[in-house]
Amino acid sequence: MSIVVTIILIFAILAVSLDGKREKTMEPCLESMKTASLPDLPYAYDALEPAISEEIMRLHHQKHHQTYVTQYNKALGSLRSALADGDHSSVVKLQSLIKFNGGGHVNHAIFWKNLAPVHEGGGKPPQDPLCSAIDAHFGSLEGLMQKMNAEGAAVQGSGWVWFGLDKELKRLVVETTANQDPLVTKGPHLVPLIGIDVWEHAYYPQYKNARAEYLKNIWSVINWKYAADIFEKHNRDLN
């Protein structure tokens, strides 16, 4: 997928709120793109302990995600100026910054919703129809978790491991992406249901270099209800 197509897809994602509702005046084009903002977490910073420490959540949300938002907005403003000035060289240079920081914002906005405290349903297995679909494609929920853990542990450097819906093939998939590439960079037909951040900043202060342990423990706070809601919405659209 070309970088230009990727940028357009990221713009389209950012033009739509994460619950799937489009602002009436928003279209996925540069002139109407609003600046991004850091979303509030739907739980306290210490609510995911012991799986994810308060220290990590504060750093991850307030520092890392905020940086992606700040740098994306800065690059978007520079891109507008470059286009207005006909500065083609700067337009090309800015695309990688927009992809990286825009992707970082998109991915983390999903990630926070993919997590939930245990007392609010975190780790509670999904119900049908998602449960049956997982059994059909991966044998069991445990089979899916093992596959994602293996794929996530094998990511070289930094990136994400995704559980998603392939709307084109009408099946559930596990994919990985490098750096801050959203799942959509693997194809516009892929819908993210669960994304797990395997950058070191997501686990190192607590787990050090034990990425596999982080991946094992994070399932205790995965918000399967969110994944099930997204699956049902898109599954209805396919039927």
Automatic annotation (TrEMBL):
GO terms for molecular function: manganese ion binding; superoxide dismutase activity. One of its GO terms (cellular component) is apoplast. Its cofactor is Mn(2+). Residues 127-228 form the Manganese/iron superoxide dismutase C-terminal domain. It is found in: Mitochondrion matrix. Residues 37-116 form the Manganese/iron superoxide dismutase N-terminal domain. It catalyses: 2 superoxide + 2 H(+) = H2O2 + O2. Mn(2+) binds at residues 60, 108, 197, 201. InterPro entries: Fe/Mn_Superoxide_Dismutase, Mn/Fe_SOD, Mn/Fe_SOD_BS, Mn/Fe_SOD_C, Mn/Fe_SOD_N, Mn/Fe_SOD_N_sf, SOD_C_sf. One of its GO terms (biological process) is reactive oxygen species biosynthetic process. It is an enzyme of class 1 (oxidoreductase). Its main location: mitochondrion. Residues 1-20 form the signal peptide. Its EC number is 1.15.1.1. Homotetramer. Destroys radicals which are normally produced within the cells and which are toxic to biological systems. Destroys superoxide anion radicals which are normally produced within the cells and which are toxic to biological systems. Belongs to the iron/manganese superoxide dismutase family. This is Superoxide dismutase. It comes from Eutrema salsugineum (Saltwater cress).
